[in-house]
Design a protein that fits this description.
Elements lengths: L2 E4 L5 H12 L3 E6 L2 H12 L6 E4 L5 H14 L5 E4 L16 H11 L1 H15 L5 E5 L15 H20 L4 E5 L17 H13 L9 E3 L2 E2 L3
Helix pairs in contact: 1-7, 3-5, 4-6
Bound molecules: NADP nicotinamide-adenine-dinucleotide phosphate.
Length: 230
């Protein structure tokens, strides 16, 4: 059976990705840092059929990520699809010259290092898949083409750097497909109620990369199933 791990799957886009992958017959590991919220989310997904597995994982914490990989390997011997979805926005309307080192470090720790850390911890399990795939959930806010729009600079810097992680991983892991995805502006706690896309629309390209995209598609930044400039 194909296996998938989605980080930050207790709500928002990650939860929807986990739900859709479950419906497509994957054994889904519902990653969450909060045990209670993670179990509730896994139970909600299970109501549609199948048996997702809750996996406690705080992507900002090395010990938690290492423990999660150990726990995972007690249950499954390989990982086909890793979705580095967990993310935070700590700055709102802040100005780049005024954001604190602390804010930037916290954001990078989760949004950038988190994805690298989880990929590193699960790399051997991924290497056991015939077609290992890693998706880093990025943002148009991290795009350099077109210039910045001054919104949430700390968050945007972390997503630009995440795209760098994607490019480096794709080069280092030729057997893997490693890509960044911008889900668009999505109605979640992060995106807010005025966002233009449903979680289903936000999850679409991520799930497509897991199931239908060619394995040779790697080292790219995508939105709506199409490559976009970095
Ligand atoms: N919504 C949008 O419009 C939009 C646009 C572009 C990109 N994105 C990206 O899409 C991804 C999902 O965002 P969303 O809109 O679904 O946000 P969300 O509803 O706020 O969900 C974020 C998820 O990440 C988890 N998370 C945060 N820090 C974590 C950590 N250290 N370890 C593990 N999990 C952690 C949260 O867990 P808790 O519940 O425990 O906090 C939550 O499950 C993010 O990477 C975001 O940057 C979103």
């Amino acid at each position: 059976m194909k296996t998938a791990l989605v980080t930050g799957a207790n709500k928002g886009i990650g939860h929807e990705v986990a739900r859709q992958l479950m419906a497509k017959g994957f054994h889904v590991f519902v990653g969450a840092r909060n045990r209670g919220a993670g179990r509730v989310a896994a139970d909600a997904i299970a109501k549609n059929g199948g048996k997702p597995t809750f996996l406690e994982i705080d992507v900002a914490d090395n010990a938690s990520v290492t423990a999660a990989a150990r726990e995972f390997s007690k249950i499954a011997d390989h990982l086909d699809f890793l979705v580095n979805n967990a993310g935070i926005v700590v700055d709102g309307d802040s100005v780049v010259l005024e954001i604190s080192d602390e804010l930037l470090r916290k954001t990078l720790e989760t949004n950038t290092l988190g994805a690298l850390r989880v990929t590193r911890a699960f790399a051997l399990l991924l290497a056991k898949s015939k077609k290992p795939r890693v998706i880093n959930v990025s943002s148009g806010g991290g795009q350099l083409t077109g210039g910045a729009d001054r919104c949430a600079p700390g968050y945007c810097i972390s997503k630009t750097a995440l795209n760098g992680v994607t490019s480096q991983l794709a080069a280092a892991l030729p057997k893997f497909a490693v890509n960044s995805v911008c889900p668009g502006w999505v109605q979640t706690d992060m995106g807010g109620k005025n966002a233009t896309r449903s979680v289903g629309q936000g999850a679409d390209t991520i799930v497509w990369l897991a199931t239908d995209a060619p394995q040779k598609l790697t080292g790219k930044f995508l939105r709506d199933r199409k490559e976009i400039p970095w």
